[in-house]
Amino acid sequence: MPAETLGLAWPSRVRPKATRVQLKTAASEKPVPLPAFVTSRLIAHHAAQLRERFAAGAPTEEGLVFVTPRGLPVSNSWLTQHFQDLLAAAGLPKMRLHDLRHGAATLLLGAGVHPRVAQQLLRHASSKTTTEIYSHVTAAQERQAAEVLQATVGS
């Protein structure tokens, strides 16, 4: 991988000081198109982050989206706990952060997005990974299938 891809990945907390690690694949380097609601939230978050850092007199490490109040990279354990707190506050069950990728695959394919497009967005090596591992059948899809059978066979 080219050296310029270093520094774009999630900081690793294996060492006492957070370090950036090389991305797994070249495909991981490509920009990911985001829906407008995500973009607007990220812009608002960035503006609030800059105000916080300025008020605290602490610079934000360049390129990081989520940092501590001192402007340092957040740890994986902090992010996981924060995610669990947000889920609890919303009345949702516990889940892993990684489960959001499964949810995205399920939503994309359920909405009729071509599996190859979903595969590319999720940066999977194969659309089989997207369709057979990451996407899940929903109760609504099962009901829709039953309705199709009713319309086709029923009277």
Distance between termini? 61 Å
**What spatial order of strands do you see in the largest sheet?**
1-2
What are the segments in which pLDDT stays under 50 over at least 5 consecutive residues? 1-10
Shape: elongated
Overall mean pLDDT: 84
Number of strands: 2
Listing every helix as H and every strand as E from the N terminus to the C terminus, the arrangement reads: EEHHHHHH
**What is the makeup of the main sheet?**
2 strands, antiparallel
Explain what this protein looks like in three dimensions:
It is a single chain. It is built from 6 helices and 2 strands, in the order E-E-H-H-H-H-H-H. With about 160 residues, the protein is an all-alpha fold. Residues about 1-10 have low confidence and may be disordered. The termini are far apart. The protein has helices spanning about 35-55, 75-90, 100-110, 115-120, 125-135, 140-155; strands at about 10, 20. It has a domain at about 100-155. Strands 1-2 form a two-stranded antiparallel sheet.
Defining traits:
two-stranded antiparallel sheet; single chain; 2 strands; 6 helices; elongated; disordered N terminus; 155 residues; mainly alpha
